[in-house]
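#dry-run=false #mode=assembly
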Amino acid sequence: MTNEPEVKSATATLTDQTSPGTAAGSPAPVAVIVPQSALATETCAQSSLTLPTASADASANTPVLDPVPNARTPASVPTTFPIRQAVEVPERVLRHVAPDTVPLVRRLFKHVHLIAGYALDDYFDLVEVVFQDFKPYQYAELAFSKQIVDEEFRILMFAEVQRIFLNAEIGEGVLDEIADVHLAAETSAQERTNHLARWRRIVFGAISGDPMMAKAVDEKLGANHLNLTIYSVRHIVGDLRAHIFADAVMTAALERRNRAIALLEKLCAERYQRMQIREPRAEDVKYRRAALSLSEYAKTLIERTVTDDRSETKVSQNP
Amino acid sequence: MTSPAQIAANRRNAARSTGPRTEAGKAQSRRNALKHGLRVPLEADPSLNEQLDTLTNDLARLLSKPREAVRCVAQQQIEIMRIQQTRAAIINRYLQQRLDQDVHISADTVAMATAEALPEIVRLDRYEQRALSKLVKQLKILDARDD
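#status=ok
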């Protein structure tokens, strides 16, 4: 089942760096180069998934399912980047926060924990978007902003994983077995792959809790349309298990992100409210009095004249 | 219930057991049951303790609050950081395994390595959830303080 990769990738290595913060001496997390040109065929070791290839002949076998909407793909970066390395927050990000907050931002984003395959610039793009929207001012707001960015980044990564699951082909043996049950012998390979991809999406939907999909699966199983052997079931269950895990991680990340957004919005709203309805303190009264007396004094310095209509002469109005 | 004779026999057999004898072997077997190490308190790890002290000092200075007031916040912040690091380390371990097999790295490779790491990653979610809840609580306490 494992196809030989057709494209040789550019150099891509993991940089191992002992991390003082990593628990129990596990290897330090690092970001990884992902050359976009090096799309190769891989087979998942734990399941029967086979990834579609970037080559022209393989594109014919790629399922035509609509991919899961994914706003961002892993970016290519020219070098490896050890995660524990202290990073400098870009100026474009700092522009969106109050000058007093800049040291806090620098401290909070000093160590960015990138997930493999993603670039630092992408991370700070997201930070910039969140800062633009929420304009964090206090430490709590900054902490929640960071949480939102981290969770969003994770969601993007798992969206990619889910897309691959949904677009992956079912292993050849399983494919033949199911295809023979459902389709006529003269069905083309493309149609057969599409059919299986559609079927796969129905099962994934059923597992994720979609009642319509579950009903569709029940009907098919009830009518004995899925005549699967233990071999096929084992592979498909493996795929589903991975899909369920991805779904669980994604759901948890979404929940945490939404919670952080709700908390941040609440904090921002409270801040604006405080600014608007705050009762004047003794300090404010003092400043206002000072400002009033200053304006009264300033009035005396300004030459105020009116023009007499009859004589058309200018008459001073100053006291 | 185990009889005294059985207990004595177990002890005799255990005395003949060939466990790890070298220091390296002992060090390795000591970590046999280690899954991710997130249940270890921050204070037990000297390096994390050092990071915690640094962050506490920085926050105390930047927020103009006493050290003891910001320490709990810093603790949860470091805890979240530790979980994120562990997650990235797990994914990278699977990725490294693929690279060791001379597999060419690509976006799909990274995604597949992530997929393989999923069963381990799922376990970390509840730790992160808990740390985040504690952080929110500590931030509220910090906000309510009038120092």
